[in-house]
Amino acid sequence: MRERSYTLAAALAAALTLTAPALAQKQYGPGVTDTEIKIGNTMPYSGPASAYGTIGRAEAAYFRMINDQGGINGRKINFISLDDGYSPPKTVEQVRKLVEQENVLLVFQPLGTPSNTAIHKYMNAKKVPQLFVATGATKWGDPQHFPWTMGWQPSYQAEARIYAKYLLQTKPDAKIAVLYQNDDYGKDYLKGLKDGLGDKAAKMIVAEASYEVTDPTVDSQIVSLQGSGADVFFNVATPKFAAQAIRKAYDIGWHPLQLLNNVSISVGSVLTPAGLEKSIGIITADYRKDPADPQCDNDPAMKEWRAFMAKYYPEGDVKDNSNLYGYTVAMTLAQVLKQCGDNLTRENVMKEAAHLDMSPGTLQPGVKITTSPTDFFPIKQMRLQKFDGKAWVPFGEAIGS
Amino acid sequence: MSATSEPGRAIAAAGEAGAARRAWRGAGLALLLLAAVLLPFLVSSYHAFQLTLALAYAIALLGLNMLTGYNGQISLGHGAFYAIGAYIAAILMTQFDWPYWATIPVAGLVCLVAGFLFGLPALRLEGLYLALATFALAVATPQLLKYKHLEDWTGGVQGIVITKPDPPFGLPISQDQWLYLFTLAVAVLMFVLAHNLLRGRIGRAIVAIRDHPVAAETMGIDNAIYKSLTFGVSALYTGVAGALGAIAVQFVAPDSFNVFLSISFLVGVVVGGLASISGAVYGALFIQFVPNIADDISKAAPWAIYGVFLIACMYLMPRGVAGFVQSAAARLPWRETKKG
User: Minimal CA–CA distance to B180: which of B161, B164, B169?
Assistant: First the structure.
């Protein structure tokens, strides 16, 4: 495919003019010189979501490492990361600054669903790559309508489809009860589960209960879900509510197979407050390796990651999987730029981003990053893991959505 | 001082000097306006966009200044009216295909009513108690916008994306330049109206209520109705600003209108200068640009730098930028000779 377009371009160039050497010449978009590539980014370094700011710092550290190693094809990365305070109007302002003032080649990893929604149209009208956005919504993989925007992590729907697949394989007569947050995030999961179960969804899902973020507890929802006689409990809740749900289910003597969404995977902020012994046996899915898992100690990729953290981001928490996330997504961008060679136009960046096939060692075995011109969902597999009272223990193969 | 409020008598008393001063002032304002019109053609479209936002903030600050500066009621909740204005513009444009300019008066009117209704019970609250009641409004706003029964209108957490308007009549200017000029026109209109309102009988009544409510009542001013109306008009200004801001940003979402926005408005009013019309412009420039300057100075602690700026402003210019400019201008030597 690519070969052919090169030949075509070569034939065209040769036919039209005598500047055949121009082919070998470098092609640069905005923000690129022989020595530098400018990359823009926005992150919530302040404001309500500032805990995620560490992702931006890990990415900046990764690019520092790349630069120390001589850059990408001889060009240093100039990573300009601005604070948007998780406020969409501020994201618009900062992204316009990056595109119109700093003249960046592309905008990488803006964080947050509302923030990315705010710049979605702008980026596509301006034809500036909005690459590997840091949100789990499903709408970022739509190359037909938004060819300049691409997600990275598995979408909420994809994750839910993975649980559906697992249930169909291992527990085809399951009676499923779902607790979900009543917003786009919760509904995305519910839709994914139903899509994954297909015709059997109506029969298998025996109860659904939703809660509002403003609710004080989800106790009454759990009681009513138990009353449905379900033997599988799908917990689609943010950390505080997920912990309440796990604790309440245990306390009222309801012991179904529990599936917990990846959003609330944190042992420290979910399972510990819920009670570690009450959380034994819960199943979730992840695409990353767990940096807190002692099993990873001898893993070469994880050793490399620890060395990186020690040298380039020593103030960061080596057990925080947000840092591992930043490290791996920055690695993905580095791969795209490497593939671009000396053709660093915005068009070519999107073209190469849509021709990825890599398996970073920081992801679970079997989880790959693959894209194509019609597939803008880089990560599609996850691996299931079970909580043993101390840590998440992965089991089985990676499952694709 | 009273030259503008009672022109007839003042001119008679001060003679030609007064007329000359007014002419100078008029010429100065005209020059300033000309500069403002030319500005978007001299800077990049990104800066034109920032200036458009600053103009929208200036209108909001003017509204809040009427309430806080002139009438003495503290509001920590004007972000809510800004949000209402923004959402009205967004909903009318996306769901009812209204042209952007037609949404502005509707946003203003809805906020006038909302502000008036909120002002009625708030009458019983004075000073800090009113500040707390309005603070509650600001805290509640983002969550109310996410309320599920309103979701069909507000788009829930996802918000609403607006299409940026094109310049009319095929004018050969960019969308950003046009939007700036449009916002500038609305801002000039709103400032002229505010000037007329505040320098007239109503304005004196509003100030009298702030300075001495009992005396004002004795003079025959209906405190209750004036205070509620001030609240309403103040909300109207903020709503118009919200609509303009939303059109410029092309997006509204609950997270855009958090408590910090309301606090920023109060900061802008105080930094710009309480009870001063021009102060709204200075305050708007402060809240629009100082966070960016702070971010440029230190990536690690931008809000600490912001705090330093704020303290420095309050220390060096206790009456706000407008007060500082006024007293500096009064000391200019040529000003003295003009008077004599």
Answer: B164
